[in-house]
């Protein structure tokens, strides 16, 4: 469909503005991520068995029925008009000038009803013989007829009825009914904000494409705002006019920076290994020589590094972040570290007049590349809101968790659960093998049960294929388990499951699996 006039098209690969059935939301989608509906319909239905996906398919089928009826009616009306014109010509009751005027008028109606836009949607029309959502938007557009916009020239337009994100295992959602819906002030209709410990509801601002929300009142009186499920992310983002800095271009940081650039942000990058910056310079980023220089030249600087020591060195070391901090400068630490570390960093930043936000992310390299991370933020609430367009570019959901330290604790708990689950998966697969059971059959059974998830399937496939290319480094999940166990110790809370899993990961590290994916913990059981 045609995007709103004020919506900026992302830079980079060619893409289209797509409407999603079921969720009724929109997003910019790359050409290579689009699939025609009919050839892939049955395949996608087999993969996605959820109720919401079926509702999306039903919406598509209803749309096709309606457009088919409209096309038939249009064709019938055109035929009648043609017959009337021929009859009128035979009777010769009208003047030559009047005949010309009516004939011209009739041809215009026929052309409008049956021919317009065929060149621009030929790949769609030839498949199903009915209007696509793209053509429907073109019919309604005030743009001059028959002249495609510059961005659409020489492009084959795939059918957009139920476009899927190829890499992310899409699950279609549905729109919350109006009785429990309320728009929110964010510009992106596909980005989920969860505002915890919030004393009052956010101001309401209606956008051209609104985000539907389910507002759940907590017993404490705070408000949690939950958006409807969405198959499309990173749609109508208006990039902040603030200058953005980014320090650390590892597995997670690289994907984040790429999405910031695609969505139109001005980004200056720095990495300890300078060569990693080259690709992003080619994409339009600027190069910072030191962390201090990046912070001093940018309004908001993000950092994403490996562990507490790296996070401290980045801020407190030579030519570090702290040397570039002055009143009003903003620093957002996205590293997964312990609460004590992040609290110490917040104190030194604020002592220099800076503003601080912690914002560790839940996800992996693929989710980072796809802009599908989950962001856990805590600290300066105003800075959290200033980062809105950046969080929308890099993630699908953000949570604001209150004071500094809360996000670090929550992130360690999340990764503790994930790491323990991964170790259990590996344990189950090896037990199946040594007892003569099929590992593939075990995976098939798990995928049909309550444990079914993208994470389970991907990690099991890694193990079955012997492919341990890192999506989340094993050494980092072990670090997070260690920090989570320490968090439990600090409040005298037992963490025996995490402790057991930690020992398995330590054995895997001893087997030189540190730089492999976390699923390589499997090798600790077979050696």
TrEMBL record:
Residues 64-163 are annotated as: Disordered. Residues 243-402 form the 6-phosphogluconate dehydrogenase NADP-binding domain. InterPro entries: 6-PGluconate_DH-like_C_sf (IPR008927), 6PGD_dom2 (IPR013328), 6PGDH_NADP-bd (IPR006115), GLYR1_PWWP (IPR035501), HIBADH-like_NADP-bd (IPR029154), HIBADH-related_NP60_sf (IPR051265), NAD(P)-bd_dom_sf (IPR036291), PWWP_dom (IPR000313). Residues 405-525 form the 3-hydroxyisobutyrate dehydrogenase-like NAD-binding domain. The keyword Phosphoprotein does not apply. Coiled coil: none annotated. It is found in: Chromosome. Its main location: nucleus. It comes from the Eukaryota. One of its GO terms (cellular component) is chromatin. Residues 5-62 form the PWWP domain. GO terms for molecular function: DNA binding; NAD binding; NADP binding; nucleosome binding. Keywords: Chromosome. Residues 64-119, 136-156 have a biased composition (Basic and acidic residues). One of its GO terms (biological process) is transcription elongation-coupled chromatin remodeling. Belongs to the HIBADH-related family. NP60 subfamily. This is Cytokine-like nuclear factor N-PAC. It comes from Leptocoma aspasia.
